[in-house]
Design a protein that fits this description.
The complex is a heterotrimer of chains A (230), B (367) and C (381).
Chain A (H helix, E strand, L loop, with lengths): L7 E13 L5 E13 L3 E5 L6 H8 L7 E6 L2 E2 L5 H11 E4 L11 H11 L5 H13 L15 H13 L5 E5 L7 H18 L2 E6 L10 E6 L2 E3 L1
Parallel strand pairs in A: 3-8, 3-9, 6-7, 7-8
Antiparallel strand pairs in A: 1-2, 1-4, 4-5, 9-10
Helix pairs in contact in A: 3-4, 3-5, 5-6
Chain B lengths: L1 H9 L2 H36 L5 E5 L13 H8 L4 E15 L9 E8 L14 E5 L12 E4 L4 E9 L8 E5 L1 H11 L12 E6 L4 H8 L4 E4 L1 H7 L3 H33 L1 H9 L4 H33 L11 H28 L11
Parallel strand pairs in B: 3-7, 4-6
Antiparallel strand pairs in B: 1-8, 1-9, 2-3, 2-5, 2-8, 4-7, 5-6
Chain C lengths: L1 H9 L1 H37 L5 E5 L13 H9 L3 E16 L8 E8 L14 E4 L7 E5 L12 E5 L3 E9 L9 E5 H11 L10 E6 L5 H11 L3 E5 H6 L4 H33 L1 H9 L4 H31 L2 E2 L2 E2 L4 H18 L1 H8 L5 H4 L6
Parallel strand pairs in C: 3-8, 5-7
Antiparallel strand pairs in C: 1-9, 1-10, 2-3, 2-6, 2-9, 4-7, 5-8, 6-7, 11-12
Helix pairs in contact in C: 1-9, 2-7, 2-9, 7-10, 7-11, 9-10, 9-11
Chain lengths: 230, 367, 381
């Protein structure tokens, strides 16, 4: 288990994302965002809809390119990466847990974890061992052969977390992890996330609008209209 | 790629109807091809079988046996051409044959050939009154050793053995000595009878690379010579049939391409969000598109296999003589290859959409 | 209506591909329909368009004009059969013909059909559907088929038979009167005999190939056919329609094409049905939403049906438009024709089949429960 070499998992400096509309006008989705995460820090990114939290998360995860600014994730500067380099970066350095359409519906839980290896590095047996180990640690060993449709919402979320951890990332991005769950289940999931992240020394950004779960994180950062508030 | 195959195995239902459609199209391709092959084979077998370098007709015959006549003096001129090693006469007459055991109005169609130089697969000319028969005549109940009566004059011909793929004009061929043929012609078609030594055409073997031109020059334009391939193409209807059928087959392949393109374009739309997730966790567009192509190829391959099996069954079930269908491995393979090519090309309709799927679409939106 | 077209406009590629596949299928079906009809007409048109209600072949001829030979004894038997009125000999031969109106001395396989002219050229065996000129009234005159005119066999032209050089003048044109998909000349019986002798000096006295028979007053063609066939096992009498339909090869052509039409015809509703089923699944959420906000189920189904009818209609139109220029061509000697009846038939058939096939999708639409809008299940998944 390796953590990031230098101290920070994420360094965003003065990042701007500007969209140009069809009529020539500009929309600033993210404005001078600066954010630093330690190698095992969990940060809650809180804001209303349209605040730019999704944009920030996307840029940090290498899914979206910034218009301006510097982004370093796990020691890798992705500010000027092209699409191909970003794809490779996502294979190796980042994990995602999306809000919906997380899992491939026709793959078992185990296969969903292995899909990362399939699409990327293809290291075979070591990947299978890691998948089995993660399933065990996440309490899903007996569900390994089930399809997503045969799993409960909470179990599916855990499979998604397992997948995010497969490539031993420097940073995991959680997009509204509890929005589809009731309070009790939501708390269970957040406890799980906290345990997994802390025990592996992995940094996490949890995007949410739900103030009830922010206490699971080390700190909260608020974002409104594309601007971060300290 | 394995992802794509897993989806096929785990969710075959969504591919079923497309496979059925492609099977129908594949059957069409193989059937059309088999029809073309059957028509051509049964029209041209006798000519294709000739083990020779040229066939010589008279100049106004338009490559038709019936209208051609080669007199002995013209034959002598042909034999004298440099490079010519062997010359044989050939002629035919098309008659109805009465087969023992069949009804009085139930005749078999035969083309009786008189020949000197043996074609491929046919032995030397048998004694007078006997003939080798193309095996397709067995469908009319003819057996080895049987004597059939040809034409209104009921000329008896004893069948001494069978040969294959020597048919002419859609009729079963009989191969007999020139005398047998000449007498049958005179007895049954007095208006077309030919004098002794006169044949309808000549079969020529030689060394010259441009034998046909040399022969026609030597006879002063009294003959019209063809290579075997040229003679086959000159048979009326052959070239037109090939062109027409190939055009129809071509358009059918285009239809397969469009149908596959359509089906997979629809599937891609349905899987947009899934592809977005895969791209987000690091899948390349080429991997995703490659998976699509694999699915198209597998589905098409299965359809082609089913179609191939059905066409073979169809061939066995169709009574001989009702439809001129010839099912050959070559044609089936060509059809499969064409379909697979259409499958790969059809996927290109989805390429742009796959390329344009934004991994960022995986984050954020609910509905 | 509004929904139906808005959706199609939003997803042009998909709907365009569907229309393209239907248009191609329609084109192929119509083209092959023309091919089939042209082939059969070119093959036996002359038999259908001559005036003898009954034709008598020799059994040995196997219903091919050229293969049949009528001996004097057989002719006597025919004349003696009850119900037989007038009898006339008909001869047929294939020659190499050079029309003066052709280009560069082109030669063609040319069929001659000889019959006894009678007082005005309308004897037994004469062509019935004259569209230009007149019937032959003397030797060495001929009526051709309309398809032959463009090859140089027009009225006023002369046809030279090779070898031998016998010349025949074209005086009239009949519709759809070809035999064996070759230029066909209807001439006097004497001209026909002369033609044979000119190319083959070894020929004896050619016998007629078939006899044309007119039933006596009070007898039908079917009765005459039965009566003649009873006279001898060597005689093969047929009504004109039967003679045309039972010529070897005709049934084969029809059966082959029937299989082809069946297969192509099945593909259209399958493709349409599959397409609309998938599309319905894909827009499940929007459909559920519409139902939730009050759209009647029937409205959604009719929207679907409008799309189906529109798609197939446009496909038919484009297919027919592709077919039109091709149908004006001559393909390998077969003159094609725009078969309006076929267009109407296939339009009705494919529209009906297409609508039927979309019922699977319609069923899905009707099964949508609006409550799903709130739980987020939709129809898909």
């Amino acid at each position: 288990m390796t953590a990031t070499t230098v101290g920070t998992a994420l360094e965003m400096s003065d990042v701007r994302k500007v969209y140009t509309m069809g009529d020539g006008s500009e929309v600033v989705a993210l404005d001078h965002a600066t954010l630093t995460l330690g190698h095992d820090e969990m940060v809650a990114l809180v804001g209303p809809s349209g605040s730019g939290k999704t944009t920030l998360c996307s840029i940090a995860g290498g899914i979206l390119s910034a218009t301006q600014g510097r982004i370093v994730v796990g020691g890798e500067d992705i500010s000027d990466h092209d699409a191909k380099e970003l794809t490779k970066f996502r294979q190796n350095k980042v994990g995602f847990v999306f809000q919906s359409v997380n899992l491939v519906p026709f793959l078992t839980a185990r296969e969903n974890l292995l899909v990362v290896d399939e699409l990327g590095r293809r290291i075979g047996a070591p990947a299978r061992e890691r998948a089995d180990q993660l399933l065990e640690e996440l309490g899903l060993a007996d569900r390994a052969k089930n399809l997503p449709s045969q799993l409960s919402g909470g179990q599916r979320q855990r499979v998604a977390i397992g997948r995010a951890l497969m490539n031993d990332p420097a940073l995991v991005l959680f997009d509204e992890p509890t929005s589809a769950l009731d309070t009790k289940l939501g708390e269970q999931v957040m406890e799980l996330i906290q345990n997994e992240m802390k025990s592996r020394d992995i940094a996490a950004v949890v995007v949410t609008h739900d103030e009830r779960i922010t206490h699971y994180c080390d700190r909260s950062v608020h974002i409104v209209d594309g601007r971060l508030e300290a | 790629m394995r992802l794509a195959l897993k989806e096929l195995r785990r969710r075959p239902g969504r591919f079923t109807v497309a496979t059925i459609i492609l099977t129908l199209i594949a059957i069409l391709l193989m059937f059309l091809g088999g029809l073309l092959d059957g028509l051509i084979a049964s029209s041209t077998g006798a000519i294709r079988a000739q083990a020779a370098d040229a066939i010589v007709y008279s100049d106004t015959a338009q490559a038709s046996f019936v209208r051609s006549r080669i007199e002995p003096d013209v034959r002598a001129e042909v034999e004298g051409v440099g490079g010519v090693t062997e010359v044989g006469g050939i002629g035919n007459v098309q008659l109805g044959a009465r087969v023992p055991g069949n009804g009085p109005r139930d005749l078999a169609s035969v083309a009786l050939f008189g020949y000197e130089l043996a074609p491929d697969g046919v032995p030397e000319p048998p004694p007078y009154g006997q003939a080798w028969a193309d095996e397709t005549i067995k469908a009319s109940g003819v057996e080895e050793g049987m004597t059939i009566e040809v034409g209104p004059a009921r000329t008896p011909i004893e069948i001494v053995g069978f040969v294959s793929d020597t048919n002419f004009n859609g009729q079963s061929s009989l191969w007999a000595s020139p005398d047998t043929w000449r007498d049958a012609l005179a007895a049954n078609r007095p208006d077309a009878q030919l004098g002794p030594g006169v044949f309808q055409a000549l079969v020529v073997r030689g060394d010259d690379s441009d034998l046909t031109t040399a022969i026609d020059e030597a006879t002063g334009g009294a003959t019209d010579s063809y290579t075997i391939d040229g003679a086959v193409a000159a048979i009326p209807g052959v070239t037109e049939q090939q062109n027409t059928f190939n055009q129809i087959i071509g358009v059918t392949v285009a239809i397969a391409l469009v149908v596959i393109g359509l089906f997979f374009a629809l599937l891609t739309v349905e899987r947009t969000s899934l592809y977005g997730v895969l791209k987000a966790i690091g899948a390349k567009s080429s991997t995703i598109f490659g998976g699509l192509v694999v699915q198209a190829v597998v589905v098409t391959g299965i359809a082609a296999a089913i179609a191939g099996a059905l066409v073979v069954v169809l061939d066995l079930v169709i009574p001989p003589g009702s439809i001129p269908l010839l099912v050959t491995p070559g044609r089936i393979i060509v059809s499969v290859v064409l379909l697979l090519a259409a499958a790969v090309l059809g996927c290109t309709f989805s390429l742009r959409r796959v390329l344009r799927i934004d991994p960022a679409s995986a984050i954020g939106t609910t509905s | 209506m509004f929904l139906a077209f808005k959706e199609m406009a939003r997803a042009k590629v998909r709907f365009a591909l569907l229309i393209a596949s239907i248009a191609l299928l329609v084109f192929l079906i119509l083209f092959q329909q023309s091919l089939q009809n042209g082939l059969i007409t070119g093959f036996i048109g002359a038999i259908r368009e001559q005036n003898a209600p009954v034709l008598v072949y020799s059994v040995d001829g196997q219903r091919v004009l050229q293969g049949s030979v009528i001996t004097p004894r057989m002719e006597a038997q025919v004349r003696a059969a009850p119900g037989v009125g007038d009898v006339g000999p008909i001869g047929q031969g294939t020659f190499t013909g050079q029309p003066s109106g052709g280009s560069d001395g082109d030669t063609f396989d040319t069929t001659l059909i000889g019959y006894e002219l009678g007082p005005d050229g309308g004897g037994i065996g004469a062509p019935t559907n004259l569209v230009e000129g007149r019937l032959p009234t003397a030797d060495d005159e001929a009526v051709v088929s309309d398809a032959d005119v463009r090859l140089g066999f027009g009225i006023g032209e002369t046809v030279t038979l090779l070898p031998g050089g016998k010349q025949i003048a074209v005086v009239g044109v009949a519709e759809d009167a070809q035999l064996n998909v070759a230029p066909t000349l209807f001439v006097s019986y004497e001209t026909y005999l002369d033609a044979i002798r000119s190319v083959n000096p070894d020929a004896g006295t050619p016998l007629p190939n078939v006899l044309g028979v007119v039933p006596a007053a009070g007898s039908t063609p079917d009765e005459v056919v039965a009566s003649i066939n009873e006279q001898s096992l060597e005689l093969d009498a047929l009504t004109r329609d039967d003679a045309a339909a039972k010529t070897p090869g005709v049934a084969q052509v029809q059966q082959s094409f029937n299989i082809i039409f069946l297969l192509y015809g099945l593909v259209v509703p399958c493709v349409t049905g599959l397409f609309f089923l998938i599309v319905t699944f894909q827009k499940a959420n929007s459909l559920t939403l519409l139902r939730a906000i009050g759209a009647p189920a029937g409205r959604l189904v009719s929207s679907l049906l409008i799309q189906v009818v529109f798609i197939i209609g446009v496909g038919l139109l484009v297919g027919a438009l592709l077919y039109f220029p091709v149908s004006q061509q001559t393909l390998g000697g077969i003159p094609l024709r725009f078969e309006t009846a076929a267009v109407v038939f296939w339009s009705v058939l494919l529209l009906s089949l297409g609508v039927l096939s979309s019922l699977f999708a319609a069923r899905r639409v009707l099964r949508i429960d609006p409550i799903e809008a709130t739980t987020g299940q939709g129809v898909g998944a």
